[in-house]
Every structure is written in structure tokens, then in C-alpha cells.
Amino acid sequence: MHINQLYEEVTRRIITEMEAGAVPWLKPWKAQPGNHTGVMPQNAATGRAYHGINIPLLWHAAAAKGYATHAWLTYKQAEALRAQVRKGERSTTVVFTKRITVKDRGTEDEKAISMLKTFPVFNAAQVDGLPDTPAIADVPTEERHETLDAFIAATKAVIRHGGDMACYVPSLDFINMPPRGAFKTPEHYFATGLHELAHWTGAKTRLDRDLTGRFRTRSYAAEELVAEMGAAFLCAHLNIAGELRHAGYIQNWLELLKEDNRAIFTAASRASQAADYLRTFSESIEEEEPMAA
Known about the structure:
The protein is an alpha/beta fold.
């Protein structure tokens, strides 16, 4: 599939789902029975995680086709493991970034640029003969909440509690959260906190995420999209089912996506960067799967 065709197809599908009231990067975070990989998509051969737009692409494919696993691999990777993609199975398209060196037309100096390429992968459920892996055990609720508290504390972000508004204040570099008891459940509190922490990563002293040059007047909607997707990725990684804050933003996101068919790709990439940045405070981040955007 040509990359421009992928831009159009993915954006059109997401617009259709949003107009129907769904948000395609949200899903039930609890793994299905028999899941061997957790909820975040990863490569079954290398164990590396997929990033960027590949996360919602592969989530959508798994949900649409009823796959219980989030492990994926190429046809050649299956063959290398002495496994076989079943006859008649259809692949799912992912994208990866390829770095190439080109000459600057003006100066003849060499410079590195990134190009997006498409690649077909198959879910482990479409493949016969893969090595067995143990199913992932459920983690008790209390333990998951302790992990969330430790994850947030490790960032050392300044978080104040009070009032009825959750927000990140860039000028003073702090996050404000309503009291925990004001949320429907503890997991809703954590999900909201992760959303605000995703905003926090964009400060100049951290990831220096300025979207005004890329999105101009739509930069606010784009930043909210980054924070929402970043929180969704972290909710999946940390196995919590908190309610995210998408309802008030859907119309703005629809306008953004209808205007720019690459916006969701850029937002997903920045969301992965934000999520990975937050993870570095409490864990080692593995090298990402090369087939990622």
C-alpha cells in the first residue's frame, strides 16, 4: 500500500468511527483470556513494542477480527521461527520510519531525512507453529494502583490537589488535579493524571513539543489529541481502565483530521514519545520495533 493511500484510509476510518461516537484508540484494557503479550502491540519474533500510529492500527485490527493476542510478525519472521501463516489469511498494514541520506539541492551537503514505508504483518492468531509462551497472570487491583502511584511519583512532577479542574499550567509548570474522591473510581483519577502528565512532557525543558508550526491555529486540538493518545497508551501499558477525557474534544479533532490527513500520524508519534518519556522515570525502555512511526 502506498503511504499516501494509507494516510487517506486510516484518517477516513478514524473520522467514520468518531462520527459514530467511538474513539478508535480506546479499548478495554483488560487482556482477553489466553493473552500472552499484554495489551500493547509487540512483535512476536523480536519482543519489541510497536509505536506511534501502529498502536491504534493494530488495536483496531485485533478488535475487528477478534484476536486474543497483540503479538504480530511478518511472513518471513514466521518462517524463521519455523511457523507458517495460514493459507488465505490477510495481512494488516503497519508503517515504519526509514532514515536515508540525501544531498541538499542548494548546498550539495548531505542530510538525513525520514521516510515512511508500509509493511504487512500478521497476528500470531493467524500463524500455526509459533513457540508457546506463558499466559500473563492477572495483577490484583491494589497492586496495580500501587504501581500507578509509584509511576506518577517517579516523574517528580509538581501535582497539586484542589478545586474541580484537572489541568497542566505551563507558565508555572505544575499539574492541578481534583481530590481523588471527586473521581468515579481510582482508575479514572489515574487516567486523568496520565493525560495531564502527557501535557507536562511538552515543556521546553522536557520534550519541547511546540505544535504551532505544524498545526498553526489547530495546535490546541492537536496537543489535546497527543495528550489523549499518550494517556491511552499508558493506560494500556499499566493495565488500567480509566475513563479518558475525549468527549469535549471530538468535534475539534474531527475538524483537524478532515483538514489534515497526516495529523493522526503526527499526533500518534508525539503521543508515543510522551508516553515513553514518562516511562523512563521508572523503567528501562526497550528499543522500539523498527516498523514504527
